[in-house]
Amino acid sequence: xxxxxxxxxxxxxxxxxxxxxxxxxxxxxAIDRARGVVVIKPSGVPFEELECxxxxxxxxxxxxxxxxxxxxxxxxxxxxxxxxxxxVGAIVHTHSVMASAWAxxxxxxxxxxxxxxxxxAGDIACTRPLTPAELxxxxxxxxxxxxxxxxxxxxxxxxxxxxxHGHGPFAWGVDVGAAEATAQALEVVxxxxxxxxxxxxxxxxxxxxxxxxxxxxxxxxxxYYGQADPRAGTAG
Length: 236
Ligand SMILES: [Zn+2]
Known about the structure:
By secondary structure, the chain is an alpha+beta fold. It contains seven helices and seven strands; from the N terminus they run H-E-E-E-E-H-E-H-H-H-E-E-H-H. It has helices spanning 3-17, 75-84, 97-105, 114-119, 139-151, 176-199, 208-218; strands at residues 26-32, 37-40, 56-59, 64-66, 90-94, 161-164, 168-173.
């Protein structure tokens, strides 16, 4: 059995049970850079019915190289992100409720507390609305392009998620585990931010030095949070 297909199958099953998705509104993919192939969930298949054989393997230019089902309708968005972000190894798309609410409001999520700062080095950006021309045949690829445009010159691993205007979040990471963790953290951060602004509409951004401190103790060369073996635990 293809190791990548198995990994993506299990990640999609976990996503289905995670509470982040309703019905089939979400998908996980991962890339094998050495082979130049992406494995993604098939379109419209309930998470609990997924099997290894239902996974779809695509080349980076979108040709199906393994599997018989149609890939997720978002596949071309995933492929565009893999083409433009060589650091990214896996992508999770959901319509998780609070992150999608920020996307529907067209608002970036500001850094209001250390939970956000632990996971994201800055605001979680929201794309501009797509233009009428971007809603045509290339809609899914253009969605990817607008995400890339929104990340701009920033390192995509520093803020590993974007809200697509009027739609929902795309989150990513160096591997499946990192992308899943980002999608989960994003939803919690989105919920906390909405509650914060409900309690105090004038709440300001977290002090930038404190925010940077929190991000850097978990990320980068000087990180000292957790154990030397990252599998030893990440919470707390
Ligand atoms: Zn979607």
